Amino acid sequence: MHELGRSSCRVGQSILGQSPGVRQKIKQKGNSVNHFQRLMCWLAWLGITPFIISLSLSIRGLSLVDHTGEQLFIIYSVIICSFMAGSLWGQAVYRENQSGSLIKVLASNVIALWVFAALLAGLGDQQMLVVLAIGYLATLIIECVNTDSLADGWVKSYLSMRAIVTLVVFILHCFLYASLIT
Predict the structure, then answer these.
(1) CA-based, 20 to 30 A from 70: which of 107, 129, 151, 155?
(2) What residue segments make up the domains of the chain, in order of their start?
(3) How far apart are the first and last CA of the chain?
């Protein structure tokens, strides 16, 4: 989180002899990119909050708006897993590597439809947690494997943050799964 939040845009550092107006515009762009990176990082970590709240409700046997903690956790997880799978589609739009783009577009649809089908099939809470955990890991793996190895520092920082957040989400799914066994 800190690496991503502190990373700065290096646009213009190697540009010499530009007019003060151009340097100012470059500096402003760098600041806006840096703010955007921090915002993305914060949103990613804040996105874990509903998982923690619903897990806490589940462990305590409480409900919210007539839904158990498990139901809230799974509903939120279906939304986020589908959103993350959909982000693969968005990444594919801006890629020059057609084979990597095709993999991301297909994976985006397969993962989202797989999670949706599991929900419609009425799988039990434990089965849904397994489907969702696999969906998160598959999305991350596809994103990492199909991202250019020469990606800039921002992309590498983003993938590091994504890996950590995904690991936390995966662990929260495991905690809920374990709490349902006992």
Answers:
(1) 107
(2) 1-45, 47-181
(3) 34
Per-10-residue mean pLDDT for the chain, 182 residues long?
35 36 46 76 94 97 95 98 92 74 91 96 97 97 80 78 95 98 82
pTM above 0.85, yes or no: no
For the chain, give the longest Cα–Cα distance. 68
Distance of CA 53 to the CA centre of its chain: 18
**Token pair listed for 120:** 């419609």
Closest CA to 143 of 94, 97, 87, 99: 87
Contact 53, 173 (CB under 8 A): no
Cβ(9)–Cβ(152) below 8 Å: no
As given in the structure block, the two tokens for residue 12 are 């213009």
104 CA to centre of own chain: 14
User: Residue 23 contacts by C-beta under 8 Å, 6 or more apart in sequence?
Assistant: 12, 15
Residues 109, 152: Cα–Cα separation, whole Å: 27
Q: Chain-centre distance of CA 152, in angstroms? A: 19
